Amino acid sequence: MHTLKILILDDEPIVGKYLQPALMKHEMEVETFQDPDQALARMNETQFDVVVTDIRMKGMDGLRVLEWIRPRFPRTKVIVITGYGSREVERDALSKGAFAFITKPFKPRDLQLVIQKAAQALGYPGSGSAEGTGL
Amino acid sequence: MKSWLSKFLRKESGTDPSQVVRLRTVRFRHLLRHYGQMVALCVDAAEKQSGEYILDKAYVLSLTDKAFETVQDMIYDLNVLAGQRYAGLYDSADSIRQKATTLFKEESAFSAAPGEEEPEYLLLRKIRKVLFGRESVARPDDDASRTSLFGIAESAMKSASDSMSSLMQPFTTLPSIEKAHGGAPPPIKTSVMDLMKGLKESEGSSLVSDPFSADSAAARAFLKAFFSSEFWEGPSAGTADSNSALVACGLEDSMSAVLFHGEEYDLFDAFVSGAPEANHVYCRFQSGERGPAVSAILERLGFSISGIGGELTGWISSQPLSEMVSRVQAVAELAVFLLQPCPAGPSWKAEDEVNRFFHKTA
Question: In the sheet where A50-54 sits, what is the strand order?
């Protein structure tokens, strides 16, 4: 079974700190970044199946990250983390090709389920699930 | 009696008396809904504090903004209801806002050593204390003693309830209904109004002679449960304070009722419809020493509970119609339960009272 490669980008340390161990329990390879430039440099080195990016970050915001990824890595599924009450941003992200969005606050389990759906869309049913059964 | 009452209300507002009652009960219900929003924010914040959620400062900011906006709305409603007598609460809310602002400024200095709470959770914890922290209030009239925003919300509810009881108090002199449960006279003096019909000076025809014919389903459910309660029977039966009187009014899907006993009152308000998100039941009891039992009973019924001194309030909302009707009936029974002295005497235990209540209402 394919091991999903996930990149998490959020300038708040708590996000990577909580998500990395939670997702790795479900047999995913997870790399976390707080700096968008470092994350994009890493993407030039390694193909990621799923990128999870926050919308609001200092420097490059999540929508620009999305716009950078889509033409270069069309197969990569991008999940956008939005803030409380930001319906317009959610619509914008989806129109620019985001696979899904998830709104803070959220439980790691909620994101894991969205990643499993992304895995299915990539043709990897069962990947990203500790039980290997997928959704 | 009908003409002096109408004159009393018309003199106060210059408008049709039934409209005054109608407008005030609708405004009270508007304030209640904002109170419900504060309760929901409090519950949501507590859940997010659990550590299971990934959250950020933006959530805490949004929570704070919503809480202050909601309390501002409550203070506005209260002042409309009570003739602008509580404008000082705006200043109280502002001073609490300053505390929250200071915390957000200090937040940038938060950092977590290994094993310590993350800055976001620490900020949420501190903000929750400012927004929702409960404290016992030694002097209920002293707004300066309200050190949390929820305390201001509770103060607003207390003042609004007092205003409603003052509105209803004159109606205790109106003719009582003559027949209640099973055709028997009501155990206490009871006036029931159908606010859709209005108050007519010539006949007082808004008064409902048959309480179970009121248009409001919530009012019918409350009155039926109140009069048919088995707690009117038994060893303590018939010893309800002779000063007790019930005033109830119904308007479409809603009802309000005030049970006067001596110098005190219990208050009930409900909106019960086919749209769960619109529904609520609110109750306010002068529970006194029996507070622990009342609190346990309301909690078991699914109410969010709050209390200061000898008063307890319960709030439940957003449930389907049948659930709301059962809660209306339950608080009516509880009102009768509390009117009777506790049969166990001074040595009563809260757990026994709770069991006694649910045994009879099962």
Answer: A29-33, A5-9, A50-54, A77-82, A100-103
- Cα B32 to Cα B320: distance, rounded to the nearest angstrom: 18
Q: Is the ipTM of this complex over 0.95?
A: no
Contacts of B118 in chain A (CB under 8 A): 14, 17
Whether residue B246 contacts residue B190, with contact meaning beta carbons closer than 8 Å, is answered with: yes
State whether the Cα torsion A122-A125-A127-A128 is positive or negative: positive
Stated pTM of the model: 0.84
**β-pair partners for A47:** none
A91-133 pLDDT, tens digit per residue, is 889 999 999 999 999 999 999 999 999 999 999 877 776 554 3
A positions 105-124 inside 8 Å of B (CB): 105-108
Compare all CA atoms of chain A with the CA of B51 and give the residue at the minimum distance: A107
Among A30-39, B166-175, B192-201, which range has the highest average pLDDT?
A30-39
Say which DSSP state B118 is in: P
The length of chain B in residues reads: 362
Asked whether B150 and B42 are in contact (CB, 8 A), the reply is: yes
Closest-CA residue of B relative to A10 is B56
Q: Do A104 and B56 touch (CB under 8 A)?
A: yes
> What integer pLDDT is reported at residue B113 of this predicted model?
66
Tell whether B116 lies on the interface with A, counting CB pairs under 8 A. no
